[in-house]
Write a structure and sequence with these properties.
single chain; 450 residues; mainly alpha; Preprotein translocase SecY subunit; 3-stranded antiparallel β-sheet; two-stranded antiparallel ribbon
């Protein structure tokens, strides 16, 4: 405890770090306040009553609401949150990998990155307009429960809602960029994490009340669930930080009277290079069959019932296979052993016992394949953990924190932020955050979300 108090004092003593923390907390407060401002043309009291009567714990809408910090179910001006920007960023990230012309633009340095960022913002507007139109259809649907809260009927309400939601998403995107520039950590990731954490107190309270009402050791079961949650978080930290170090030697060079090179370094290869992207892709594919439920087809039987139930055994099996497949696919897209081999050869670096060039690329690729498989399996297990938790009697809202996208994002973002704080401490000659070792973050594996 004494060490913790001293660490907090050291953090607060660094003026630059203190200002960044204050700016970050202030912008987060603005975002959270905006999440409770109801869209114009809606009755706030009826919205609140509808939200209490509507269970939105699972499915695609439940995930949207989780990432938006409850703004989706509140019919807030930030109902779409940062997700349109995330979708646009993921699309542009994939395009820069697949399209050679965009790769050239990205390699132009700062000017190229600015062009990519500007195109991402334009794409965000387009994505937001489409999602805002879908959200209007959701609000005006008589079966959704929100239609009775609409005070303005007709196309005027649709127009005002689409414009407001688009402006709200762009403002949230601006908040994320300000956190990135003036605050601490990746602004977009922090906004997502704050939205997820905002639901945690209510979820744990609902779980506590549910277990308290049960006789025969309900509170003991609740404590066991908390212990299991802590164990899962520890396992995720190992997954995020886990690397395989490949030894690399650099040949000695004599230039003038000075000697360069000759050092032994390590090439860190991450166990989970793909980050949270495979889970996001798998969820997107798995939600497509649920669109059939909007037709007249009976959703209670057949394949629709499988894809609507996250605790279904077939759902978890298909989902696990897709996560493993997308992990290998995304790792192959972002990790290029041939490029690494050429860079090592160009800088007079070599792996002991391996010839430079193509043999080095093959060696690095084989190691990457070996460590990606256990990483992909563990990631798949993390993805289906909420389904197992719900199957074992955990409430739907609390089960989402037992794994999946939400927990992986929270662990990764917190590690990244702690890593930046530790960097400031070490630069000012203070001790780090941990006496046992350095804090390691994801180091840019998933810049947009993770």
């Amino acid at each position: 405890m004494k060490k913790l108090v001293q660490t907090i004092k050291n953090i607060w003593a660094i003026e630059e770090l203190r200002k960044k923390i204050i700016v970050t907390l202030s912008l987060i407060l603005v975002y959270r306040l905006g999440s409770y401002i109801v869209l114009p043309g809606l009755d706030a009291n009826l919205i609140e009553a509808t939200q209490k009567n509507t269970k939105n714990g699972g499915g695609l809408l439940g995930i949207f609401d989780m990432f938006a910090g409850g703004a989706f179910s509140h019919a807030s001006i930030f109902a779409l949150g940062i997700m349109p920007y995330i979708s646009a960023s993921i699309f542009m990230q994939l395009m820069t990998i697949l399209v050679p012309q965009l790769q050239k633009v990205q390699k132009e340095g700062e000017s190229g990155r600015k062009k990519i960022s500007q195109w991402t913002r334009y794409l965000t507007v387009i994505v937001t307009l489409f999602q805002a139109g879908a959200y209007v259809a959701y609000l005006t649907n008589p079966q959704g429960g929100y239609a009775q809260a609409i005070l303005i009927q007709g196309s005027l309400f649709s127009f005002l809602t689409i414009i407001t939601l688009t402006a709200g998403t762009l403002f949230v995107m601006w908040l994320g960029e300000r956190i990135q520039d003036k605050g601490l950590g990746n602004g977009t990731s922090i906004i997502i994490m704050v939205g997820i954490l905002a639901r945690f107190p209510q979820a744990i309270l609902q779980e506590f009340q549910a277990k308290s009402e049960k006789a025969g050791g309900g509170l003991l079961i609740f404590l066991i669930e908390i212990a299991i949650l802590v164990a899962i978080i520890m396992g995720l930290i190992i997954l995020v930080q886990g690397v395989r170090k490949i030894p690399v030697n650099y040949a000695k060079q004599i230039i003038g009277n000075r000697q360069f090179g000759g050092a032994r370094q390590f090439l860190p290869v991450k166990v989970n290079s793909a980050g949270v992207m495979p889970i996001i892709f798998a969820q997107a594919i798995m939600f497509l069959p649920t669109l059939v439920s909007f037709t007249n087809i009976d959703a209670k039987n057949g394949i629709i019932s499988i894809f609507n139930d996250h605790s279904n055994g077939w759902y978890m099996l298909i989902y696990s296979v897709m996560v493993i497949g997308f992990t290998f696919l995304y790792t192959a897209l972002i990790f290029n052993p041939k490029q690494i081999g050429e860079d090592l050869k160009r800088n007079n670096g070599f792996i002991p016992g391996v010839k430079p060039g193509q043999p080095t690329a093959d060696y690095i690729g084989s190691i990457m394949d070996k460590i990606t498989l256990p990483g992909a399996i563990f990631l798949a297990i993390v993805g289906i953990m909420p389904g197992f938790a719900q199957k074992l009697g955990v409430t739907a809202s609390f089960s989402t924190f037992f794994g999946g996208t939400s927990l992986l994002i929270m662990v990764g973002v917190i590690l990244d932020t702690l890593q930046q704080i530790e960097t400031y401490l070490l630069m000012r000659q203070y001790d780090g955050l941990m006496s046992s070792g350095r804090v390691q973050g994801r180091q840019g594996v998933t810049p947009s979300v993770m």
